[in-house]
Write a structure and sequence with these properties.
single chain, 340 residues, mainly beta, Immunoglobulin-like, five-stranded mixed sheet, 49% strand
């Protein structure tokens, strides 16, 4: 049994066995290096005599019976006490033994990383003591504080003989940002799209489309969507400290646009159709002739253009369109040709 000490040596009680016992008691105790005194005793019989012997120290007080006070010689690190009780009738009990060790002042230290990405949780553990007091208010040997800025943690520890204080300074490492843009703004199937990193401090990049990795560690990547529909584009970024950030965007890929149509009534390609506009309820679409005159306008609820203006068929030729998607100032312009 090891007895924990604070500032003053607590009384150590030996369990004295019955005089007819054939065994002995052994108690292990610690004496703090800063306080080389100890008081020891047994629960004995009033009429018995007690014969004490110490090794490595000097008995400086005894009541002549069941307790002694000892000053230990700290040139040694281990000491011994023996005691024999003799009854009033002259019967000798078994020898009681105790071992005493010199307890040194503790050396407290903290295990854990001295740098961490902002927003991470540090893993710090105290060692060298049996009780701990952190500047954060925790009293366990392990703590996991959230690191938002450069921070210092002070730890006071004790092993029962004394106290020691240590400090760890944790540097909060900056994180990158993983923002990006997609060009052009209007994404069309089977046409080249570009994903461009616009964040800060990134040195390593992982791009993915619908969780499928593009395997290109570059700040800018090209991609072709082979079919229309909704897609999620994600970017994982690390900086030189291996701190990371992730972002994603959802986009709609439009079907390939036909740049000409033949409104001749044969049922094939008779109208100019922009099916993707069903995904943009606030759109506006204008078509102009070569002189800048408006020949077609549609908004909110799209209807394909049949190549007419005010009920009259327009002549074969080139026309110009402007399409406002109604979100994020997203517009596109182009040419549409009527073939007859």
């Amino acid at each position: 049994m090891r007895i924990k000490n604070k500032h003053i040596r607590q009384l150590l009680i030996f369990a004295l066995l019955a005089l007819t016992s054939q065994s002995f008691a052994q108690v292990i105790d610690t004496v703090c290096a800063s306080y080389p005194y100890g008081r020891y005793g047994v629960h004995g019989n009033q009429n018995s005599s007690y014969f004490w012997d110490v090794t490595g120290g000097q008995i400086i007080h005894s009541n002549g019976k069941d307790s002694i006070k000892v000053k230990w010689d700290f040139a040694n690190s281990q000491f011994n006490i023996t005691m024999v009780e003799v009854s009033a009738g002259g019967c000798h009990g078994d020898t009681v033994y105790a071992e005493i060790y010199k307890g040194m002042e503790p050396v407290i230290y903290i295990a854990g990383s001295d740098s961490l990405c902002v927003g991470g949780y540090a893993s710090l553990s105290g060692h060298g003591g049996i009780e701990y007091y952190w500047s954060s208010g925790d009293t366990t040997n392990n703590i996991n504080p959230l690191i938002l800025s450069d921070t210092s943690f002070v730890l006071i520890g004790t092993d029962g003989c004394g106290y020691d204080t240590t400090t760890i300074n944790i540097t909060a490492l900056g994180k990158p940002t993983s923002s990006f843009i997609i060009k052009p703004k209007e994404v069309i199937e089977n046409e080249l799209s570009i994903f461009e990193y616009t964040g800060d401090d990134g040195t390593y990049f992982e791009w993915s489309v619908e969780n499928s990795l593009l395997n290109d560690n570059s700040s800018t990547v090209d991609h072709i969507f082979r079919s229309s529909g909704n897609y999620r584009i994600s970017l994982y970024v690390e900086n030189k400290y291996q701190c990371n950030d992730t972002s994603s965007q959802h986009i709609f890929v439009n079907k390939s646009r036909t740049n000409s149509f033949t409104p001749n009534g044969d049922g094939v390609n008779d109208r100019w159709e922009l099916d993707e506009l069903v995904n943009y309820p606030n759109f506006k679409l204008w078509v102009f002739d070569r002189n800048g005159g408006e020949v077609f306008f549609s908004e909110n609820q799209y209807q394909p253009w049949d190549g007419t203006h005010d009920g009259e068929q327009l002549p074969q030729g080139t026309y110009y369109y402007v399409l406002d998607y109604g979100i994020d100032n997203r517009t596109t312009k182009g040419i549409i040709t009527i073939l007859r």
